[in-house]
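Morning. Coffee machine broken again, so started the prediction first thing and wrote up yesterday's gels while waiting. Chain of 176 residues, entered below exactly as on the submission form.
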Amino acid sequence: MKQSRAAIRYAKAVFSLANESNISSNVYKDMLFYIDFSKSDSSFSAMLANSVINLKAKQDIILSLNTQTCDLSKDLIGLLIKNKRLSIFVDVANSYKSLYEQSNNMTKAIVITALPITEDIKQSALNKINYISNKTVAIHNIIDKNILGGFILRYEGKEYNASLSNKLQKIKKELT
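Came back before lunch.
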């Protein structure tokens, strides 16, 4: 997802202030909340972009969604409103999330399976990834019935495909 230059600039400024105040993890939690909320409720992004809704009402709505919002996040929302840039709030949150994760050596691995993975399998995958990387890894499980069985692991631009459908495709190629 490509963010605007303005969103990246706001995120960098907030990230810098958060680091100076030692509250970067609090702001990170706030940004994750708003990112997740915008994904689960499409009317949130529409509300941010709606020019008919009063700016004070928008601010009240945003802050009422998360009563635990830290002061720096509240200041960011106020600044975006003042500068008439509230429509890029979710982009700013995504940019902040990227900066925070990069700064804290965090990354994500995607495991695609036919069924939800168990905690044991998740831990086993984390152990394998931690063996080859020194980053903090979060595993995201995607369910895809088309792979029939096994798994596909995507991590840092690499893919390991141990799915049953992939093995069947290889056998099919050998037979033809």
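DSSP finds eight helices and four strands in the chain. Going to sketch it on the whiteboard this afternoon.
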